[in-house]
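Structure in, sequence out. Go:
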């Protein structure tokens, strides 16, 4: 445990869960307030970046600005690959040709800088390492335990740890995942369901360069995304795949020898990238939709997957969590600078107002897209392909969609705009 002892009269914030949004929240608040705010991250493996190995995320422009403001982007830029073009196709697996219905390129982006990509692919392990190191340097405390239960006690909340120890804070942030025990204990309702699909993640080596191009093939079982990573590996170039497959077919597809799994991947891959090799994975993940009926309870705020779970079809899960962290950091900072209670009801209402609609809109949009594209019904195929073609021919509409994905529109938290708290 790394300790940063609070001064008498200082405030204290506890974070249950050590995922990437949790670490971003801890770092943002500690950088803004120093010893006046004690920040403690409680998680058995919070300080171990290796648990993120093999995963990669599309960090939208808003998330990149936030990481830049926290002083981290320069440290991870070498592990980040800009996405300069995105190609969307719709076909059946056996179709000899996969027609392209929609492309997004740099010229379509609505970014403040002309040379700013609308997203970067960032491998999760170096991002987690940079966040953890930044937190330690700023004085964030890490406790390698879980939170067994929590209870408000007047002007504070007490967290009982799995070790039997107790910690008290002005506010407890529940970032303990989609099956959050803290959310359930606070009796916050949850609307959700499981998809009859799994997400399969792997890192693929290939002989030809991807040139910063991301590809999303919409297939009847679900989307198959090819996302560019930094060059490396034995074939010289790499991409991450996020493969959505029907649950009842996934076991058979993944149970074979590595060369058999690679053949299944090759049948879904683009031929443009040449010889393929399986470098990491595949790993499978259950897919679900979920949204908390409230993002707060007494002295408790939900963050990340504890508040919302979305389909990976648009690659926005991490960006939603970072936006949560930015909004909560802003609400807490506003209270502290006015000498107010950072865990008070006004602060939590402000956080909920800032995040609930955006989270609902993204959850509904990804659910609708998955239902529209993960099927083989001819009328729907014709309608969606026509719609994609219309968007492709209207530059203004394309810029709107990119602006939404890049967190470049609307009322965004200060950190997502690249501004200091």
């Amino acid at each position: 445990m790394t300790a940063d002892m609070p001064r008498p009269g200082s405030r204290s914030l506890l974070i249950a869960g050590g995922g990437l949004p949790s670490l971003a929240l801890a770092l943002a608040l500690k950088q803004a307030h120093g010893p006046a705010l004690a920040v403690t991250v409680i998680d058995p493996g919070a300080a171990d970046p290796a648990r993120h190995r093999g995963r990669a995320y599309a960090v939208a422009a808003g998330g990149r600005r936030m990481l830049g403001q926290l002083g981290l982007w320069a440290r991870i830029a070498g592990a980040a690959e800009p996405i300069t073009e995105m190609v969307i196709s719709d076909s059946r697996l056996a179709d000899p040709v996969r027609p392209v219905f929609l492309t997004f390129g740099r010229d379509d982006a609505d970014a403040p800088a002309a040379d700013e990509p609308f997203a970067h692919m960032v491998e999760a392990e170096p991002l987690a390492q940079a966040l953890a190191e930044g937190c330690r340097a700023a004085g964030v405390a890490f406790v390698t335990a879980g939170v067994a239960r929590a209870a408000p006690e007047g002007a504070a909340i007490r967290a009982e740890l799995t070790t039997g120890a107790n910690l008290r804070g002005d506010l407890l942030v529940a970032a303990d995942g989609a099956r959050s025990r803290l959310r359930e204990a606070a009796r916050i309702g949850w609307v959700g369901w499981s998809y009859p699909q799994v997400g399969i993640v792997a890192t693929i080596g290939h002989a030809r360069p991807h040139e910063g191009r991301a590809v999303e093939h919409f297939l009847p079982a679900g989307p198959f995304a090819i996302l560019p990573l930094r060059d490396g590996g034995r074939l010289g170039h790499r991409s991450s795949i996020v493969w959505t497959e029907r649950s009842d077919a996934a076991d058979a597809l993944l149970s074979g020898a590595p060369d058999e799994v690679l053949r299944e991947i090759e049948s879904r891959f683009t031929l443009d990238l040449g010889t393929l090799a399986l470098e990491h994975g595949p790993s499978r993940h259950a897919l679900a939709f979920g949204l908390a009926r409230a993002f707060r309870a007494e002295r408790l705020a939900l963050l990340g997957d504890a508040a919302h779970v979305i389909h990976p079809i648009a690659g926005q899960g991490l960006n939603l969590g970072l936006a949560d962290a930015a909004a909560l950091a802003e609400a807490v900072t506003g209270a502290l600078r006015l000498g107010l209670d950072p865990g008070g009801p006004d602060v939590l209402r402000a956080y909920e107002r800032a995040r609930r609609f955006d989270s609902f809109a993204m959850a509904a949009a990804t659910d609708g897209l998955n239902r529209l594209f993960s099927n083989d019904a001819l009328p729907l195929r014709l309608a969606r392909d026509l719609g994609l073609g219309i968007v492709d021919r209207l530059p203004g509409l394309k810029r709107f969609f990119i602006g939404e994905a890049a967190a470049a529109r609307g009322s965004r938290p200060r950190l997502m705009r690249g501004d200091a708290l």
